[in-house]
Structure formats: structure tokens, C-alpha cells
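Bug #77: duplicate submission created two jobs. Keeping one. Sequence:
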Amino acid sequence: MLRFGSVRMAFLAVTLPLVLLVVGGFFVLLEFETYTDAVARLEAKLDRMLASNSVMLARAVWERNDVLIATHAAPALIDPDLIGIFIYDRDGQALAEFGSKSTAEGMSITRDTPISYAAGADLEYAGQLVLVMSDAGIRASAKSRILVLIGFAVLLTAAIVFAAQTAFNLVIGRALKDLQRAIDSTRLGAPREEVQWSGTDEVARVIEAFNRMQRRHTAYEGALDDARIDLEHRVEERTSELKRARDEARAANRAKSAFLANMSHELRTPLNAIIGFAEVLKNQKFGPLGDERYSSYAEIVRTSGTHLLDLINDLLDLSRAEAGGLIPADSTISLDAQISRAIDMSRGEIDASRLNLKIEVDDEVPPVRADARLILQLLSNLITNAVKFTRSDGTITIGATIDERRSVSLYVADTGIGIPKDQLEKVLEPFTQLDTRLHREHHGAGLGLPLCRAIAQAHGGQLTVESEFGEGTRVTVTLPPWRALPPNALAPERP
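Kept job's structure:
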């Protein structure tokens, strides 16, 4: 479908072809009628000439008198439309031929009639008369008329189009221009204005609908401004309340962090003493205790104290991570060595649970720039979790890989009880234990995975958990590419 830049151009594009079609069709029909009538008159004249000349030539043809035939036939050629006279005797032999049977211009019209001679009381057949006329004159007149008609048609078309455009401007154009000006003014941010137009036709009804819309939008915008001002006041009040709540939360968080730091220090000192004295009693360094049960009780005290100390350390590290104080002390470390140390720390638990252990460290894994203590703590926590939730004869896989972007990944996978899909995010929240029977059988404060994620994030990496309930879990920690070093190279500064 054609598109036009303005209604005026569209109106002109529709009006002009229609006017040309109507005017042109009228003049074509008029010229056709004129030409047809001229040809009919030419044919009638040819018939009259046939009748008169056949009478004048009757005696000359009967007597075959060439001089007399020429005398009577030659004057007929004075007629500009007649181009040929042909006379034949009663035997069909040509007696006289004047002119041509065809014309280079126009169309030839041929008529013939018998020549009869009164020989006695009866009319006898004397011969045949053939006259040929051309419509060249008619065509020449038609060409002249067509040129005049074309000029007249052009003038008439221009007059009609001019009149139509003038009517369009008076009826529609000015109204559309005022409407467009009002729309553009509104679009540029000026106050909404109405179009002044009077009438009862379709254009007036459209403009009245536009004016009603302008009034409605003016009312809506006024109400919207009032609502916006009221909303700004409410947002300002709410922002002030949120700032106060944020400041209070920050103060509470600082107080919590300070409390945990102080409490961890206060708890570590007596716990270390308890653990130390429990080891002295268990090893009976100052003599036998007298009863084997005392040695067993001392081992329980030492194990419980060690577990409590680990819990306090994890709690302190997680609190520091939440406060943004968990900053890695970077050094160049070998992940293979860190994995071996973490396995050694958990070897007793792995053997006691009768688990199969697999180590998968790619040869291409390079040294990394990281905090050795935090990476060891991360691996130890992941291995402890895997041991805790994997039944006997299960398998734990510990590995490290590097991808094409040189992002190094550490992972610990197990064939344990797994985690339901709808609770994968929940296990990363601090102090959370899953609400399933299998998970409730295992004790813990729910700090392992949240602390591991905090360590990964402190190194600029991320931790992901993949699991199928009843089939096992895989925890992956991915370090950013800038932490990977070329083999035997010094570590660059952190970007």
C-alpha cells in the first residue's frame, strides 16, 4: 500500500488520475464518434459519385470510346478524397485506370457499381465502375482536433485539480494544520491547547473529539502531578526511615561483630586450656589415672572441645566475611599440595567411614595466587561435609581443572544423600539445616557451605552447588582467571 507524506499529496494522487481518466475518456469517446461520423459521410459521398459517374460513363463505356471516357472521368479526380477510378468493359477488360487502389496514409475505401446503357428499349450491361477513396483527410482533421483536445483536457484537468485542492484546503487542510500544530505543541512540552473550529461535519466532530481528549489529559496530568508530589513526600519520609533503619542495622552489625570477636577470644582461651588438659589426662603424662574410663572421658572432652573451637573459628570467619573484613593474604600456592593437606586432615574420618577416595587434578592446573589458610579451610569444610553425608562404601572425588579462559575450579563431589532441588539455595544460608530426616541425623551449625562461599567471593570467585536428592552432591569453587599463574612464574599483582 502506497504511503504519502501528507494528506494533501494523497488527495492529489487520487484526484489527478481520476480527473485524467474521466476527461480523457470523454474526449476519446467524442473523437471516436466524430471520426465514425466523418467516415460515414465519406462513404455516402462515394456512393453518390458512383451513381452519377456510372450514368455519365454509360455511353462511352458501351462504345469503348477512350477519349470520351477520359473526358467524363478526369473531372472526378478533382475531389481530394478520391484517389482512383477504374473502368472495365462488359468482358471485364480494363478500359481506363486513373489513380491508385491504395494509399500510403490512412485507409482506402473501395466501392464498385455496374454500368448500364439503354440500347433500345432495354438496359444492357456495359461494364463496371470502381471508385477508391482515402480517409487521409479525415485523419488529418482528427490529428488537428486531437492536439486542440489535449490542450483543452490539460487546462480542464488543471482547473479541476486546482478547484479540488482549494476545496480541500478550505474544508480539511486548515483544520488538519491547526490540529497538527496543537499536537506538536503538546509533544514539545507546551501546555495542552484546544483547536478552535466550528461546524457540524465530520472534520468538526473529529476536532471536537480531540478537544475532549485534551481536556481529559489536562485533568489526568493535574491529578498525576498531585499524586507525584504526594509520592515524593512519601518516598522522602520512607527514605529517611530506611536510612535510620540502615544506620541502626549497621550499628547492630558492628556490635555483633565486636561481640563475636570478643567472645571468640574469650572462649578460645579456656577452650585451648580444656583441650590441652584433656590431652594431658588422655596421654597420662603425670602417671596413670587408675581407671581406663577416665582416659575415655578425657578423649571425649578433647574431641568436644576441638569441635567447639572449630565452630567458633568458623563463626568468627563468617562474621568477618559479612562485615567485609575477610581479606585474603595472597601467596603463590599449589592446589595439588593444598588438596593433599586437606585430605590428610580428614583422613581419619574418611577411613572410619570406609569411603572410597578419588583425586582428579589436571596436569595443566597452574599455581594460583590465593590465601593458603583460607583455601585449606575451604577444602577441609567441603571434604568434611562430603564425609558427613556419604554412607559407607560411597565415593568422594576431589579435583581441580582449568578452562580455556584460565579459570581454575576446585570441586568436591560425593555419592551421598544429596539435596532436594528446591532447597539448594537454602543450604547456602548461615545457620541452616535442611528439614529432611537424613539431614537431621547429622549435627552441625550450618556454617560450612556459607563460609566456603564467603571464602570464594573474597577471592573474586564463586561457589556453585549441583545435587540430585539421593544420588549425591558436587560443590565447585571457580577462581577468576587473573589468579592463575604460568608454571614456575611469579604471581602478578591483582588487577
